Task: structure prediction
Amino acid sequence: MTLQGKTKRQALTEFREAEILEAARKVFGEHGYANATVDLIAAEAGVAKGTLYLYYESKDAIFWAALTSRFREMHAQARREMQAQASVREKIRAGLRVRFAFLKSDEQFLRMYVTEFGAMCRLQGGPLQALYREAAEYVAEVLQTGVDSGELRPVNTLAAAMALMELVKGMFVMRFAGLPRHDPAFDGEQFVFELFWNGVAAR
Result:
């Protein structure tokens, strides 16, 4: 018997993995990588420690699976929303809207992404590097269409795409630092868009 092309066993396995990764994001988000343990993750997921090892061989493997699975979801949704827009300007707005919404709605993923990501891979390898570059390269392709049409000035599109992604992350680093204190109504999404667009738009 299948469910949308999957056996009941496959569907149950995927469901259990999703539960484990959700529990892992909570534990890593609350305790940080160094203080998180497999025992804490198993307890949060409501499974035996031995059961958890049936899915992942180590704490490191769990960490990367938890981080990359959510990053992949964010990138996929951002790409769908961007593809639905006509102009480069609206594509960039749509991509920012998705990323800000994702990071605002998932505190555990946000903490892993902001506080652990750089410390653990420095973008010099690791399971997230390929996903990060894939996301940046898609944004770069979008920017290149703007350069080709004259909507944007000539820029290094991959560098610009990566700078945009880091600007988004920077807004949430500011949040953890308690900034900006002077303006509680500060709109980080709008700020990032205007700062970026004013830098790349054709004059």
